[in-house]
């Protein structure tokens, strides 16, 4: 019975291996690969979130000119003394026509104009923050896709070795040179490759969908990437990274602009103690038979803010409190940024050490089928395969951590491309 089952296994071995080998990855030659710079440029141009922030900047800029303008002039007509018994007799009516204009107190228009420009600064800083955020996501997805392509290429190489191993196992088993467990182990190794392939294809499709969405394309659109894994020789000192963040981080710039905006609001609230002035001039037409039928009118009025001191004092205190809030927010954001920098440096250094570790320990398992025990051959192949996968994951992890660090400091780091085993490649 056992012998019969084993014969069935041997007969099914070839069709199964063929089905697995048919799944060998094929790069699409009809899709032009995109570099990281091209993908980032596409994201800056077409990303929906960035487009929203650009519209907010446009909206803020549209409010600058009206902020410095005076209120619209007003026109008024009044009809007086029309007899109730003859309401249609307008010759008995006193007609008055008047134009008036309100002028804000000195300095208010300038402060409002300054306030509107500071609102634009905040919107522009928030736009840069969104661009930096999207760039970080794009880079992380890009490096994931590079890693996925590395894993698929490695899978293709291992498929060729697995084909040779299965063929060798069949021949040696036929002539009685290896036991049944060697054949089974070859089949398990082949099945493991098929399992890896399914996982790699799924991961690639997921990251393509995410990257396509980031650059404003259909998530299902085909996408291939080309680029290089890169490793700086040495990361800058923490103090230099923190200073770079203070100078370049858009979120900090937005809060500083918000502080200036709040300070301007304080000055504007204080200006509200100065009255606004309204002047007007009019023409009056008196009823028929009047001694002076034509006349003019002049008008001057202003508000009395000092009689409403509690309101204006409250406005000033509120504006001053907002300044304190924004300053506290700035210090809190600085602490958060410094934490991000520290964590990104720790993770980047850890990933860099892993890259060096796997690169130093990675060896080629070249062998001849007649010169080694078959079980050791399979074990060696699987071990090297796991190390190579770990090496590519470490490369992608380091690239992602550098992207996080660049996001934290708000600027690009000087980067030196690391040479060596599979440090750069292009997918086609």
User: Which shape, going by the Cα principal axes?
Assistant: elongated
Number of strands: 6
Alpha plus pi helix count: 10
How much strand content do the residues show?
5-15%
The CATH class is: Mainly Alpha
The CATH topology label is: Outer membrane efflux proteins (OEP)
CATH level 4 superfamily: Outer membrane efflux proteins (OEP)
Mean pLDDT value = 80
Pairing-aware structural class of the strands and helices?
A: alpha+beta
Give your account of this protein's structure:
With 428 residues, the protein is an alpha+beta fold. The chain has one domain: Up-down Bundle (Outer membrane efflux proteins (OEP)). It contains ten helices and six strands, in the order H-H-H-H-E-E-H-H-E-H-H-E-E-H-H-E. The strands form two sheets. It has a four-stranded antiparallel β-sheet with strand order 1-2-4-5, with no helix packed on it. Strand 4 (277-285) and strand 5 (294-302) form a beta hairpin. Helix 3 (48-62) runs antiparallel to helix 5 and helix 8 runs antiparallel to helix 9. The two termini are 50 Å apart. Mean pLDDT is 80; it is low at 1-23, 364-372 and 417-428.
């Amino acid at each position: 019975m056992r012998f019969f089952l084993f014969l069935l296994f041997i007969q099914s071995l070839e069709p199964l291996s063929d089905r697995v080998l048919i799944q060998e990855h094929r790069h699409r030659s009809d899709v032009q690969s995109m570099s990281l710079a091209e993908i980032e440029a596409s994201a800056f141009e077409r990303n929906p979130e960035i487009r929203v922030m650009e519209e907010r900047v446009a909206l803020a800029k549209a409010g600058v000119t009206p902020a410095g303008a005076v209120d619209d002039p007003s026109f008024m007509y009044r009809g007086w003394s029309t007899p109730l018994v003859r309401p249609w007799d307008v010759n008995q009516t006193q007609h008055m026509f008047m134009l008036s204009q309100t002028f804000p107190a000195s300095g208010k228009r300038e402060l409002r104009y300054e306030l509107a420009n500071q609102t634009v600064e905040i919107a522009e800083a928030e736009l840069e923050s969104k661009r930096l955020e999207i760039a970080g996501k794009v880079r992380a997805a890009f490096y994931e896709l590079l890693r996925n392509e590395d894993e698929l290429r490695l899978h293709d190489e291992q498929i060729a070795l697995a084909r040779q191993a299965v063929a060798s196992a069949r021949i040696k088993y036929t002539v009685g040179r290896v036991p049944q467990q060697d054949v089974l182990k070859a089949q398990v190794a082949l099945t493991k490759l098929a399992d890896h392939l399914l996982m790699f294809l799924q991961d690639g499709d997921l990251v393509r969908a995410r990257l396509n969405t980031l650059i404003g394309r259909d998530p299902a659109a085909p996408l291939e990437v080309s680029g290089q894994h890169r490793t700086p020789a040495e990361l800058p000192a923490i103090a230099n990274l923190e200073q770079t963040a203070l100078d370049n981080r858009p979120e900090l710039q937005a809060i500083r602009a918000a502080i200036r905006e709040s300070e301007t609001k304080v000055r504007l609230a204080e200006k509200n103690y100065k009255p606004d002035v309204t002047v007007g001039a009019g023409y009056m037409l008196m009823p028929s038979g009047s001694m002076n039928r034509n006349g003019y009118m002049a008008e001057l009025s202003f508000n009395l803010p000092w009689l409403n001191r509690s309101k204006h004092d409250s406005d000033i205190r509120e504006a001053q409190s907002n300044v304190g809030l924004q300053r506290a927010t700035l210090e809190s954001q600085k602490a958060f940024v410094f934490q991000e920098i520290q964590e990104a440096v720790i993770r980047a250094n850890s990933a860099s050490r892993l890259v060096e570790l796997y690169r130093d320990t990675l060896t080629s398992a070249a062998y001849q089928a007649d010169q080694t025990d078959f079980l050791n051959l399979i074990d060696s192949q699987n071990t090297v395969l796991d190390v190579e996968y770990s090496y590519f994951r470490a490369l992608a992890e380091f690239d992602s951590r550098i992207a996080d660090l660049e996001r934290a400091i708000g600027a690009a780091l000087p980067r030196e491309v690391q040479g060596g085993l599979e440090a750069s490649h292009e997918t086609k």
